[in-house]
Design a protein that fits this description.
By secondary structure, the chain is an alpha+beta fold. It contains 25 helices and twelve strands. Strands 2-3-10-5-8 form a five-stranded antiparallel beta sheet, with no helix packed on it. The protein is globular, with a radius of gyration of 31 Å. The relative contact order is 0.13.
């Protein structure tokens, strides 16, 4: 007979699952973008969780950065991640509720989390005031009081997922699912950035001011959603890099390391660089600190490695400045060869069959001479200008020597025992022609200055290898730690040097002081915009109320662009666009957008109704290629300069798509915007058709409000974000919320620091992820993007969970 406690939990869990299932069904019924596909995927996900209920901890973090189709659906108050989370609650509560918890939060953490939840609830209630009946505008922009509920849902989701987290198999079970989930999310994000860069500025174009947004649709008004996500996910690479149980995990970690570095550096966001640096400092301190304290690691060794890294960075940067990517790539290969060759194991029996050490030296000399002659022959013979790049003399010679050395190293590490000594000698012989070919590649690309700089970078590598070879014992060992450090250094240098040397990077760094002053002034203005009363100081203005406060009460005398949906007599609904107003006479317009699939160099028919109110307010109608921000290749179909005052007029015009749709048809967007004097422009019955009559616009009559439409503020981001996590928390939740959150973060940091120093449970990685997020939070808001709020609290919960005592679990599940 099952215990009454288990029966009660099972019934309660199934009852709790029903509301989530009902809400999910209603939202899917009303979902505007391919609802049948969304329904099928939701059913498949629920079936998967019914089979493996704990897999949500893998799939939710993996989907969190990219599962947002707001630019297509038009719904950003409740998005696709919310549907996934509702399905998680429905299936998880149904399957796991009868299972007793296997982990729990420490009592202090539970109390502090409760204070944060209470403060959030109070701020959410205050943000909803004054209460208004829902209409089309309630969930269509950030000026609505209902924005408070949108912001609050991040904390709410974390709270509702807590019972499932407690039943995820304890700290070990949580890590087994959460870590690969975070790394999958990082992989998807990095690939999205690569794709976006290849489609727009060019993958290796570091001189453009284009800054990717990847899958984060929440960045349509700017912000640091992508920055904060990278800061929280990238440190998890260290989990596999330092503790991988399998070689394929190690290989995957190395790939993700390079991908994460490239992604972070090509954002050109200084807060990401600082976050990466903070995370690296935490990981290094908690990995090396205990070893230094116990004497297992000598301070002199750490100092030598640090000096060597600084020297290496300097000489490689110099070589890149004159020899470009080719010189940098060949020199990184040379230094990698130095690491491997210098750490190859040595045995007393090496060379026993060929005359001992003298015989091995002869092998090295012979291989060096043969490869040198082969490389010279390749350079002399392969001079044709019609050859592909890799087949030209210097490049072919480098590839040949590198390939020969790689084969010898493989045999030295894993070949037959009798051949390993000879293979090591052959690899050492191949090293010197490799160094010469690296200099030759630089000379071929950049002439004598490039060759000089490459030689300057190669000489320390050669000297370091010779110093290691002349000692009885190598200066370092080839093991997991040295390979991880070497690969991490190579990835950092390969990603950082080209980007840091770009012209746009120089521009970004030249404006640090000015941008800091602007940030500080903006934070001060945000606090001064708060109504001066004790309740606002104690409880805050309310969640999600900053955009509306800025719109109506900013201290600069400006009014950002806006829009709303109106209904006239007879029930007709239409879109009203309001132009931005600025004391200097201009402002960044708010663009109303819809993605349209266009084919290149094709004719289309564009139609719409328009009218204006007030002053000389003008309408802009263009079609551009864009990912989320930064329109390109725009086509102007001849929109009217000024619509008629107060009376509807129908406009009909031809549109030639030109280059739009040439690379990816789905990235073309119709843009509607108002600008000019104070007033308004009304738009209705928008239509974009092919010449054979196929309609491309969804909800062109605006009868369903925002469905199918999105908006962006491409350049003016200050009206939407306070740009500081700490000031943002005080603005929305007052001293109560700021203190409660600070106490939770301090407690979490202190506990993780103690556990990390003891080398337990990946605590260093959790602390590095949270530290990175808080560094980004020093320069931008975090909690105005609910999925970031959820992720932050999910990481805190996972980091603080501890095993539930076995006796308690047995007592909870024992029969009556």
């Amino acid at each position: 007979m099952e215990g009454s406690g288990a029966l009660t939990r099972g019934v309660a869990g199934k009852l709790a699952a029903l509301p989530a299932a009902v809400i999910l069904a209603l939202l899917l019924w009303d979902y505007p973008f391919r609802p049948w596909l969304a329904g099928l995927l939701t059913i498949a996900y629920c079936a998967l969780l019914c089979w493996r209920p704990r897999w949500w901890l893998l799939l939710v973090p993996a989907a969190l950065p990219w599962l947002d189709l707001s630019p297509w659906s038009g719904r950003f108050y409740i998005d696709e991640l919310d549907l996934m989370l509702l399905a998680t609650l429905a299936a998880g509560y149904w399957r796991l509720a009868a299972t007793p918890p296997d982990s729990r939060l420490p009592r202090t953490a539970a109390v502090l989390l409760a204070l944060v939840v209470i403060s959030t609830a109070v701020a959410a209630w205050r943000g909803l005031q004054p209460w208004a009946a829902p209409d089309l505008n309630s969930y269509a922009n950030y000026l609505s009081p209902y924005n408070s509920l949108r912001v609050a849902k991040g904390t709410l989701w974390a709270l509702l997922l807590l019972p499932l987290l407690r039943r995820a198999g304890g700290p070990a079970g949580i890590a087994a699912l959460l870590v690969p989930g975070m790394l999958l999310g990082l992989l998807f994000t990095g690939l999205a950035v690569l794709w976006e860069r290849s489609l727009f500025p060019g993958l290796l174009n570091f001189s453009s001011d284009y800054r990717p947004t990847a899958p984060f649709a929440a960045m349509h008004t700017g912000g640091a959603a992508l920055d904060a996500y990278l800061a929280m996910s990238f440190p998890f690479v260290a989990w596999w890099l330092l503790h991988a149980a399998r070689r394929r995990q190690m290989a995957a970690a190395l790939v993700l390391l390079l991908l994460g570095l490239f992604t972070g550096f090509t954002l050109f966001s200084r807060d990401v660089w600082l976050a990466y640096g903070a995370a690296a400092a935490v990981l290094a301190a908690l990995h090396a600190g205990p070893q230094l304290a116990s004497g297992r690691l000598r301070p002199a060794s750490v100092a030598v490695v640090a000096v060597l890294m600084v020297l290496l960075c300097g000489v490689l940067a110099l070589a890149f400045s004159s020899g470009g990517y080719r010189a940098l790539g060949t020199l990184l290969v040379l230094w990698a060869a130095t690491l491997v060759l210098g750490g190859l194991p040595r045995r007393r029996t090496d060379g026993a069959g060929i005359g001992g050490q003298a015989g091995l030296a002869g092998v090295s000399v012979a291989v060096a001479i043969l490869l040198g002659l082969a490389a010279a022959a390749a350079v002399a013979l392969l001079r044709s200008g019609g050859l592909p790049g890799w087949a030209k003399g210097p490049y072919f010679a480098f590839l040949m020597t590198a390939g020969a050395g790689a084969v010898a190293c493989v045999l030295a590490l894993g070949g037959p025992a009798r051949l390993r000594g000879v293979a090591r000698a052959a690899a050492l012989g191949a090293y010197f022609p490799l160094a010469a070919c690296a200099v030759l590649v630089a000379w071929h690309w950049g002439g004598a200055p490039a060759a000089r700089d490459a030689a300057l970078a190669a000489l320390p590598a050669v000297a370091l290898l010779l110093a290691s070879q002349l000692r009885r014992q190598a200066l370092w060992q080839l093991n997991r730690a040295s390979i991880s450090l070497g690969c991490a250094a190579a990835a950092v240098l390969a990603a950082a040097i080209p980007i840091l040397a770009s012209s746009y990077m120089e521009e970004r760094m030249s404006t640090v002081e000015r941008d800091w002053q602007l940030r500080v002034r903006h934070w001060d203005e945000a606090i001064r915009m708060m109504p001066d009363s004790w309740d606002n100081s104690l409880f805050g203005v309310g969640l999600g109320r900053y955009p509306a406060t800025y719109y109506w009460h900013n201290l600069l005398g400006e009014q950002p662009g806006s829009y709303r949906y109106e209904t006239e007599a007879g029930g007709n609904r239409y879109l009203r666009l309001l132009p931005p107003q600025h004391p200097r006479g201009y402002g960044d317009p708010l663009r109303h957008l819809q993605l349209v699939p266009l084919a290149p160099h094709t004719g289309y028919l564009l139609e719409f109704d328009a009218r204006r109110h007030g002053g000389d307010t003008r309408l802009s109608v263009v079609v551009c290629r864009r990912w989320l921000l930064y329109p390109q290749d725009c086509v102007v179909p001849g929109a009217p300069a000024a619509a008629p005052r107060d009376n509807w007029q129908r406009y009909r015009m031809q549109l030639d798509s030109a280059r739009l749709g040439s690379r990816l048809p789905g990235l073309s967007q119709l843009e509607l915007a108002a600008f000019g004097e104070p007033g308004a422009v009304d738009i209705d019955n928008v239509s974009l058709r092919t010449m054979d009559g196929k309609e491309l616009i969804r909800n062109g009559s605006f009868s369903r409000g925002q469905d199918g439409w999105f908006f962006s503020s491409d350049r003016d981001h200050l009206p939407w974000h306070i740009k500081n996590f700490y000031v943002h928390t005080y603005f929305e939740q007052g001293w109560l919320g700021a203190v409660a959150l600070a106490l939770l973060l301090l407690y979490t940091g202190g506990r993780l620091l103690a556990r990390g120093w003891a080398g337990r449970d990946g605590a260093a990685v959790y602390l590095a992820a949270l530290s990175g997020a808080l560094v980004v939070g020093a320069f931008d808001s975090l909690f105005d993007v609910p999925r970031l709020t959820l992720l932050l609290f999910l990481l805190i919960g996972a980091a603080l969970m501890k095993e539930r005592p076995v006796r308690q679990r047995q007592r909870r599940s024992a029969p009556a």
